[in-house]
Structure formats: C-alpha cells, structure tokens
Design a protein that fits this description.
The protein contains 4 helices and no strands.
Amino acid sequence: MRLFLASVIGAVLVNAPAVMACEGCKEPSSVAGNGGVDGISFGFSASVIFMLVMVFGILGGFFWMAARSCRQLEAAHRAAAAQANWSS
C-alpha cells in the first residue's frame, strides 16, 4: 500500500506543472512540432502588454487629473489670498 501511495504521489508531482498550467498554456506545449505555437505565444504576449498599457494609462490619467486639480486649487487659493490682502 505504501508503494502504491508513493507511486501515485510521485506521478502527481511529476505532472504538477502541466496540471497547474491553464488550458491556453498547456495546449501549445502539447502540440507536436512548432505548428502554430509562435502565433499563440505572440497573441498571449500582445494581450498581456495591451492590458498592462491600459491599466497604466488609466492610472496615469487619474494621477494627472489629481495633480491638475491640485494646481488649480492652489492657484485659486493664491488668488483669493492676494485679493484678501489687497483689499485689507
């Protein structure tokens, strides 16, 4: 029984990377030869780059908007302070 259990655990551990990979990652590695693997890997890379660019673009837009709002608010405070000092 111990030998059988050790064999099952060994078989699971040997195949663990293939089992834990997603379907899109498992399929190109199981294709015999190089047929279509380059296109699939380029597609995965391009989609990841696109998603990262979109995330950083949105975050950059939020930070740019916040910085612009802070500058406008500071300019409005300076104008109000200058007008208050001038009228006193």
